[in-house]
Write the structure tokens for this entry.
Amino acid sequence: MYKITWDKETGGVQLHTRVVDDTLGVSPRPVFYEELDLLGLDKLGWKYPQCKEPLLWAVNKQYWYRGELMFEAKGANIYDPATIVFQDGCEKMKLVPVNMKKMLERNREIMFVIESEAIEFIRDTYTTYAQAKKSVEKVKANQLDYEELAARMEQKTKRKMAIVKEDCDSFEVMPLDVANEQGRRVFQTTKIDRFIASFSGGKDSQVVLDLCTRAIPSTDFEVLYSDTGYELPPSLSLYGEIQEYYKKKFPDLRFTLTKNHESVLNYWDKIGTPSDTHRWCCSIMKTAPLYRSLKLEENKQAKVMAFDGVRAEESVRRGAYQRIGKGKHTTIYNAHPILLWNSVEIFLYLFRYDLPINLAYRQGKARVGCIVCPFSTTWDDMVVSHCYKKEMTPFTERIASWSVANGIKDIDLYMKERKWKIKAIGDKDVQNSEVSFPNSQTDFIAIAKNYNYTIFTWLHAVCDYTVTTEGKQTKGELKYKGAIYSYEVLYDNKKNQYKFTVFHCHDLRLIYFLKRVVYKSTYCVQCEVCEVDCPTGALTIYPQLNIDKSKCIHCHKCLNSHDKGCIAADCLRMVKDMDKKITAKVHAYKTFGMRDEWVSEFFSDPEGFWENNSLGTAQVDGFKAWLKDSEVIDAKNSLTPFGEFVKDNYVDDMNMVWELLTINLSIHSFIVNWFVNKVSVGTAFDRQRLNDLLSEEETGASPKTRENAVAALLQLFSYSPLGGEFYFAEEIDGKKYIRREYKDVSETAIAYSLFKYSEMTGIRSLRVEDFYSDDCITGPYKVFGLSKSNFEKILRTLNSYSNRVLIAELNMGLDNITLRDDIDSMQALKILVG
Ligand code: SF4
Ligand code: SF4
């Protein structure tokens, strides 16, 4: 929230209310002796005490002592330690700990302001929502369920509704903005049953918990800690410590430890590993057990206000959060009291109140998560494998053995570079359940093989139905929205398969729900995620899966709880489709590259283009795939906001538009991403060479499919600026090409590429050097082959703009890039292009 500088005198940091000389662009983290030991500094001749206080501060992997850069830690992964590169004269140092008393005193006033503001926010939120309960009850005393009415109207009109008080104690539902305009008294309609502080073992949630104890009576909220099953050991110890600490101060404060009924390893075995794009473990191991523990009487899910430690600094996505908002589940609201705090302020708070600190921070982790997490880094792997090898091994062993079974050759590299996080991987033996929906002109047909539950376990969630059974055939009628549909289910016990047919079924909504019921019945592993979304308590998943018909109101929330209606179905699809997905991506372009003439024709009339264009049918399909991969059109072939932007700027700055398209293609297009990562600047190639290189990849694609992909790529180079003007393929000799650096790339494209990188990785504080490391998969170097010096030149220009979108600190050994936290990639484009 506040600006930070080094405080050379105390060896600490100082907060400022405005930018001053030497303001740091990034929040540093304190470094303790445990981390220095782990890096082997004691063995390299450094002297420092084994004290409680921090000794240095780290910005990314640069270590600073009293405002001076001492060394940089390079490399580090699950197998290899970091290499220490000292600044001249810093090879042997004697460190004095931070003078905590003085540092805290100097930051006292600013910390008082932000603490007080956060406490005020928590108290206000608590008071408002605690009163909402009373207001809703008062409204209900009027016989009509206004809350339900408001919710329905919101769904219908897509406008936020409010309950307002009329004369004579009656009530009305109207749009919230209209009510505010008219100065009407609005009754808060979100009735909260329970207030919680969710503790995760991390520093942020620890601060929020402490703030809650200062803002809400200890009898009116509770502390929940969700043990995911692969918590770091010090997080579990810290939970014990903080319980003891607060129980002494507030004996009536309730603490609850929640856990899924199954171990996380069992879930890995059943549904595969979590991945970058699918972190199922957060839902299954963390949030679902946590919120299930908050049920009211009759299995009904409580409406919960969770005060959490979400902070904008942690990622661009989080930066866009409102301070109070609806959570992932329909009954959960989240409040983020420290949304705008930076990590220095968090540590200063912990130091000021002498709260226990998770040992993992002292050992060098910047974020405390689970032992194995797709979102952590090679650095985290180094720390965890060094300190908690025993706990890490069962997970890494599984990744390694499944990788072998899936044909991955260099397992060491796969582990070191954390490639496993890109795509889910799993045990081949559990991938035998299958669902298909054969085409039919008249009926809805589903075939489920090796299903876990019969269709009837879930069918009631869709609608009421009748059922009669004769031998292997079961039939009956579905009663959906006033219409009756006959159905039959034919079982084939030998194949462990059933065929479910609903006759004369054309209602698309009904078909959508039926598909979800089929997915759930086939793949359900009783993870309990969708139970949390059931508002009436009708759904019980464990120990026995059951829908209580007397309570089910067919609200379909359990069917909408996740893609495909079931998180397990989605996970298994990802594990199973690992090969197929790549093949499908390669297939989509057929043999056609994206051509500038097509783009030009499309932008001249995006709406009419699909009806009337100069392309052949196969070319249209290929072009659509390219437009989707470049984020110009969405799944319905309509222009996205990005598409609108590039369309509007195409005539004025065609090259800039193509640069932006290239950046998106380098992220979404399998073949472009493969090219920018595998064919580096200076490499000569021809068609055959590309085919050979691609055949070395584990794409699962046939030789023909690979050849087509290469053909499409070469067409893209020939018919767009990429080949000649952007130097992806400069012709050197007939059909031979060389890739060269594209130096003239625009500042706008570079800024856009950094924001896109940040949105992909969740990291907002970047370093020039990161883009030149082997594990970076996109960015200015990978996409345009931009050299470090040219990249830095462009960064300096961007930094000098009055309305800048990033701060680049490139002097005095720094190479930090900090992206503005209040904008995303699209807004950055609009600011830069004007
Ligand atoms: S969420 Fe609950 S009430 Fe709604 S359809 Fe599912 S089981 Fe029925
Ligand atoms: S249906 Fe899917 S999401 Fe729901 S409990 Fe079963 S596995 Fe979990």
